[in-house]
Amino acid sequence: MRQQARLRMVMASLLILASAIPNLGNELNILGSFLNFYRLMVVFLAMITLIVFRGELRITERRSFLLWMGFLSCWLFYGVLLLLLSPYAEAERGTRELFSILCGLLSFYILSNLKLSEREIESVFRVMFWVLAAMLVLGAWEIITGNHLSSSMFNDPANEVAWRVDTHSATGFLYNVNDYSALITLMLPVVVGRYRIVFRRGYLDPGWFLIIATAVINRVNDANFCNAALVVGVFTYILLHMGGDRRRKGWVLVAATVLLTGLLVMYFLNDGESENVVSRTMDLVSRSAEGTGSLHSRLLIYRDALSAGWLSGFLGMGPGGFSLYYTENPSDSGFINPHSLLLEIFSEYGLIIVLLFIVLLVLLFRNMHRIFLVSKDPTRRVWGQTGMIWIITYLIVSFASSNYLPNSFHWTLLALICLMKETIREEEPEIFAREFEKKESYANEGLSYNQRASAGGYPDIP
Questions:
Q1: Given phi > 0 = left and psi -120 to 50 = alpha, else beta, which region is 253?
Q2: What is the pLDDT averaged over residues 339-343?
Q3: Would you say the C-alpha torsion 204, 207, 213, 219 has a positive or negative sign?
Q4: Residues contacting residue 412 through CB under 8 Å, at least 6 positions apart
Q5: What does residue 201 show for φ and ψ, rounded to 5 degrees?
Q6: Distance from C-alpha of 130 to C-alpha of 107, rounded to nearest angstrom
Q7: Long-range pairs, 435-440, Cβ under 8 A, ≥24
Q8: Positive or negative, the Cα torsion across 430, 433, 437, 442?
């Protein structure tokens, strides 16, 4: 049993590592860019899962995994049909895209069958903490020195836009600055509360330092969507903690105030070359009204993504179809990628697929919100809080990258949220019962969350 527990932990940690570090250089890209480290590792872990754990799916208990795996299987099947039949689909790019979705399906498969305990899941989150810390150190090194790994766009002679970005930016193990900022921002919701440095009358949470470091790197990378997601995530965290005791609420508010003040200082002060955030925002708005600027270009490509869905009869252009179509028929925006996950899915796979994707996200958010409200265990309520912030952050960050489906970490992220939800379902099945008596009784009495907490209905988050 101990050996199996260790194997589960190693496999889950390798999945996290491979999702966060998909490229280790060109030597592992066996077929060009088709098989990188992440894709090789996910396929390997899926095979180990099938051999060692026999792929035993607990159908009646792990519904979230079955829903997502069923959805991704249908998505893959439909994508293959479009790849074969759609006149807009592009074979090489489309095949890579479908393989990325397959890797997402395998990520769900792996985590659904590892049967990690609560303690093991917490250990996985701590692994994520240190992976993020290491990536931030690498990002700081890139910003200071201007040097980058071989997988970076700055070392790609075929990249036509690298010259527009300051080389003193960070790409990590990824290709461009937006993908790197999206990744480190998505990893943040698990860092708060994982470790504590205890003092006589309180404690210091090093997770807040990782948040500040991420905000600084996002600022250098000019990844404004990512920092917007970070700010929304922090505000959500504050709102979810407003029902706690005064001492903890004070620490939360102090940490959040320091973070948000630092962000405001970074954005309102000039950096010597570019204008402050007010001037830049006004400039973007005025240039957009004149028909120029990045904001105008994004609005144009969003319009084009909607047009692509309409052009395909809401069935989707097919895998890789968006880029192929707007390469042959250039958009006024100058872009060939949709710059939005939801519009990317809509334009290439149609209305039904994107609606099902949104419904599954809403169901996950609703379940994590219910866990946060009614679980009797403080750790599980932290998981509910983490899941909600993760989903909110995910939806905002998905506007940062030019094309989001090939990114690796977001599939593991969604599978981790399902894992938290299903692990709690097995321990507290009454949370997901159609009628939860205590919750309903409080709701009928019209009590707020603070009143429920003070009445002893739900324990505080530590």
A1: alpha
A2: 89
A3: negative
A4: 15, 16, 19, 107, 111
A5: -115, 20
A6: 21
A7: 436/374, 438/374, 439/373, 439/374
A8: positive
Residue 70 DSSP code: H
Backbone angles phi, psi at 198, to 5 degrees: -85, 135
342 pLDDT above the threshold of 50: yes
N- to C-terminal Cα separation, the chain: 31
In the numeric block, which tokens belong to residue 313?
């009869």
Per the structure block, which two tokens stand in for 150?
Answer: 């071989």
Task: Return the H-helix or E-strand segment holding 152.
Answer: none
- Residues in CB range of 118: below 8 A, 6 or more apart: 379, 380, 423, 427
pLDDT tens for each residue of 368-387? 999 998 888 888 889 999 99
Instruction: Report the candidate in 322, 311, 324 with the shortest Cα–Cα distance to residue 405.
Output: 322
The sign of the dihedral angle between the CA atoms of 256, 259, 262, 267 is negative
pLDDT band at 103 (very low <50, low <70, confident <90, very high): very high
User: Tokens at residue 118, please?
Assistant: 């609560």
Instruction: Answer whether 181's CB lies under 8 Å from 230's CB.
Output: no
CB 293 within 8 A of CB 287: yes
Question: For the segment 113-136, what is each residue's pLDDT rounded down to a tens digit?
Answer: 888 888 999 999 999 999 999 999
| Residue 378 and residue 240 in contact, taking contact as beta carbons nearer than 8 Å | no
Please write the tens of the pLDDT for every residue from 14-35.
999 999 988 876 544 444 446 6
Q: How many CB atoms lie within 10 A of CB 291?
A: 10
Radius of gyration of the chain (CA): 22
Query: pTM of the entire structure?
Result: 0.84
Give the pLDDT score at 375: 84
C-beta atoms surrounding 38 within 10 Å: 27
- Buried b / exposed e across 73-84, counting CB within 10 Å, b at 16+? eebbebbbebbe
**DSSP letters along 262-323, please?**
HHHHHHHS--SSS--HHHHHHHHHHHHHTT-SHHHHHHHHHHHHHHHHHHTTTS---TTHHH
